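Table S4 entry, Peptidase M20 domain-containing protein 2.
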Amino acid sequence: MSVVADQALSARVGAELDTRRTGLIELSHAIHADPELGDQEHHAAARCTRMLAGAGFSIAAVVGHPTAFAATYGTGELVVAVCVEYDALPGIGHGCGHNVNAASAVGAALGLAAVADDVGITVLALGTPAEETRGGKVDLIDAGYFDDVALAVMAHAAGEDAVGVGSLALCAWDVTYDGRPAHAAVAPTAGVNALDAMVVAQTAIALARQQLPRDDIVSVIVTSGGTAPNVIPAQSTAVIELRSPTIAGLRQTQARIRACLEAGALAAGCTLSVTPKGHEFADMRQDAFLSSAYQDALRDRGRDVPLREEMGGSTDMGNVSQVVPSIHPMIGYDVQDAVHHTADFASYGTTESADRAVVDAAYGLAAAAVAAATSPVQRDRLLALVAERHAALGH
């Protein structure tokens, strides 16, 4: 397809977003004003689906996940998934800007619907809950929602624009040591001190850090360690997060930290329980063509988006990117010196700068998908990957 034709399609996407701009900003503000934690985002999901249904999308519930949804438009062979995430953080609301993420994703879906028939796509807007906790996108992968998807897109709120930013593989564990209580003065030898096990484990982890790979991160908080100083603690608990640049690296660090935890149990004579918190997050693979197309599109909006290939945080969009060619660019707006996961960052989520980011990101995502759908080479590449996935799944 010629450049002129691509420009014409992009212009139609932009015109659709101009028409929808007020509604998209109202959506962003409403989600921001009504923050809901993971798996409790009933209002946010309902607001998104109402807007999509009003534009002709068919809405379907996701069985077993009441705050997820699947909204479809069009009948084209090439399926474009737009991931809509809208969960907030405890105590600080949208300190990660998911109101911007959600509204920009809905906007991208609406922009793509305006040209869906012309470019031969089906638009699949997926409501993906609990990104901040257990990783709702993994449930949708497991349930088959990405089996037919050729490419997936979403943008993430940030203090500056960027494409290509990676994310670390992550897992979180609930750790419990069980011992035996006893009076610390009258019968200390009768007790088995669960807090001692935790102290030994923390010490072992601290020593292990010097020999872990440079970019691996281990974070620990102790959540309980006894109730009275004259009672030997019968139980201690902690939450541990492990991060590594790749899933393979995460596996190695998991084994090392698990050994540290077992050392604590052995030293204190306690029993150890390690329970995963939610799904593991995979590292993010940014699709080169889609990233470049997003950069090109954002120039139309006056944004010169840099390529930054350093590692960022962690996201379940990484899991999607391991299955489907994906992009997860940063859409920047003025947050002064605020950083993610703070109340300060949340306070900038409904500014004029953030509102512009909603519409600009929507345009960039939709235009990138259109560029892929209208390039014969890219379309063939993406559909071939879908066919390979079907073969692997036995479809």
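Confidence is low (pLDDT under 50) at residues 1-5.
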